[in-house]
Design a protein that fits this description.
mainly alpha, elongated, about 85% helix, about 110 residues, about 0% strand
Length: about 110
């Protein structure tokens, strides 16, 4: 049962990183009728904004469970979760930029 829980948590983590990128790519295709720079900019920034809104639901859930059982006595786990949200947002911007550069090169050909 413990291994199924670990696999489920890993799936949640991966889907938290991949889902915003897919939605950013779909947004890029939806905005192609607008100026090219606007479609690419939305495709880069939308995944980061979506990750910034969705990731605290995942990262802070374990913190709240541990806080209810009085296992946590300091704020370091909350700081670590906040740092993971910020690092994940930066990762989403970086990956979104790479994807949009690929889409820009593909469109030029």
């Amino acid at each position: 049962m413990e291994s199924a829980f670990i696999v489920w948590r890993l799936f949640l983590l991966i889907s938290t990183l991949v889902l915003p990128q897919l939605l950013g790519l779909l947004l890029y295709f939806r905005l192609q009728r607008f100026p090219n720079w606007l479609a690419h900019l939305a495709g880069v920034l939308a995944p980061a904004a979506l990750f910034f809104c969705l990731a605290p639901l995942y990262f802070f859930s374990g913190f709240r469970e541990a806080q209810l059982t009085n296992e946590i006595r300091c704020g370091m786990p909350a700081l670590a979760a906040a740092l993971l949200v910020l690092l994940g947002t930066a990762l989403e911007v970086f990956v979104g930029l790479i994807i949009q550069l690929y889409m820009f090169g593909r469109r030029s050909v």
